[in-house]
Amino acid sequence: MVSVCSECGARAPGDAIFCPACHGLVVLQLEAIAPDAAALRRTFAERRLSNAAIDRSGVWRFRELLPSIPDECVVTLRENDVPLYAAPGGGDFADATAVAYLHLGMNPTGSFKDAGMTVAVSHAKACGTWVAVCASTGNTAASMAAYAARAGMAAVVIVPAGGVSESKLVQTLDYGATVAAIEGDFDRALAMIRTFESDRVAILNSVNPYRIEGQKCAAFALLEASDWRVPDWLVLPGGNLGNTSALGKGFREALALGLTTRLPRIAVVQASGAAPFARLFREGGELVPVKAETDATAIKIGAPASWKKALAEVRVSNGVAIAVDDSEIADARAAIGRDGVGCEPASAASLAGLRRLRRSATIARDENVVLVLTGHLLKDTAYAAQYHASGAPFANAVVRPKDARALRDLIERAGAVHA
Ligand SMILES: *Cc1c(COP(=O)(O)O)cnc(C)c1O
Ligand SMILES: [Zn+2]
Description:
This protein is α/β, with parallel strands linked by helices. The protein has helices at 37-47, 53-56, 88-94, 113-126, 139-151, 166-174, 186-193, 209-215, 217-225, 242-256, 276-283, 307-316, 326-337, 345-359, 381-388, 404-416, and strands spanning 2-5, 26-29, 84-86, 98-103, 131-135, 154-160, 178-182, 201-203, 233-237, 265-271, 320-324, 368-373.
């Protein structure tokens, strides 16, 4: 693969994150690989039957389409081998009939960040880098800490003090990273990180193009699970917008390789208190950063680093970007739980967004829709507990039967629903 600037198109050094000429984000481009789609599909399918970790990983299984990294440097936890679930309850919630969840929360550390981290950490290891750093709203930190631990690398994460869920923080501590909490928000933490670019430190935020290469594999995993049929729509939450640019890239490459015959339309959903990209999509011009406010902390980002790349992907797919309110996210999250699936708040922006796009008739009732669930339910239990203690539509409060008879009544009533 070759490194090129996503803005001015200049060739960049292999390890650059920002273009030396214009400071644009660097992307990796596939060099001409002979597109024999049938042979590629067969290879990917055969690897799923293997017990080798790099074959079962839903990232490294697609290694022909990734930067080449020596096998002995590959650091994998068998990430991105994730399920595609039917979403009947989510479909009812949004008034749509053909909805599925691509559950990227079913990753080793519970979020899609693992798919990117395996490539970025492996690359850092191949380069002989010994310190990994990132700014994080929590999931990047947990993921980087885990992969750095597997690689024998030191990890330092910068998080906004008080801005990260307890579960994500505890994961990061468990995996042995140094956690530096700073005053200020994610955007400030990322601005600090950007000044550290050096040969000895690997910056593992989604500005790192190797992260994007790993995350694009979620598109391949989805296509593989759908027998290479392309959904009409892919709906996902947008924060820093690395994942939007990654998935868009994955679908474009699948098309270019002849693995598919069209692109899905991409719908990016932001929280209304952190929606500079949705606004940009509506009004045009340049992205105007905002002071982000939302309870969906994973998308509480006011100055998304990858907005230009994400905008290009949304445009080429004939997609949209919209915003939803926190209360819509909260109900959508609980509705997803009723499908026996569950996710963290930011992920549920996808279902809340689908409901809006159904109401505006942007998406037709029977179109095939895949909702990307980005993080696991257990990532933010405090949020869920608060919801269930509220009077919200899907709230499910703990009950306290006073004796055995009350308990028997309770069971009868629960069963009556199915009578
Ligand atoms: C990181 C993250 C997002 C946002 O992804 P971006 O690439 O920053 O747009 C959404 N949901 C969850 C759970 C995340 O961890
Ligand atoms: Zn440039």
